[in-house]
């Protein structure tokens, strides 16, 4: 939510002279500064999100054993099917 609200608020604040000192800037400088600050605000939110994710304990989420077993069976079926079709293709080429 902050990734959308913060940059839009910064751009709105600069373009409608709500931030102090923005009235003394030229239009070109105003656009450059507001755009730069909007990009910096998005990157700050992303860094904050990454830091919060890194602080989350790794053992908090345990995978479901039934899901893992089903996924392994599915992978095994695909790999067995791929080798048999590869063998069939090799025989066909010979």
TrEMBL record:
The residues that cross the membrane are: 30-52
Q: Which Pfam families match?
A: VMA21
Q: Name one GO biological process term.
A: vacuolar proton-transporting V-type ATPase complex assembly
Give the top-rank taxon of the lineage listed in the UniProt record for this protein. Answer: Eukaryota
> Which GO CC annotations does the UniProt entry carry?
cytoplasmic vesicle
Q: Which UniProt keywords apply?
A: Cytoplasmic vesicle, Endoplasmic reticulum, Membrane, Transmembrane, Transmembrane helix
DNA-binding: is it a keyword of this entry?
no
Q: Report the protein name in the record.
A: Vacuolar ATPase assembly integral membrane protein VMA21 homolog
Organism for this UniProt entry = Arabidopsis thaliana (Mouse-ear cress)
């Amino acid at each position: 939510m902050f990734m959308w609200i913060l940059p839009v608020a910064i751009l709105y604040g600069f373009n409608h002279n709500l931030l102090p000192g923005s009235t003394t800037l030229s239009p070109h400088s105003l656009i450059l500064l507001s755009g730069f600050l909007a990009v910096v605000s998005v990157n700050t939110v992303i860094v904050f999100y990454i830091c919060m994710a890194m602080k989350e304990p790794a053992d908090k989420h345990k995978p479901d054993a039934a899901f893992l077993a089903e996924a392994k069976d599915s992978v095994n079926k695909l790999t067995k099917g791929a080798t048999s079709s590869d063998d069939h293709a090799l025989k066909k080429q010979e």
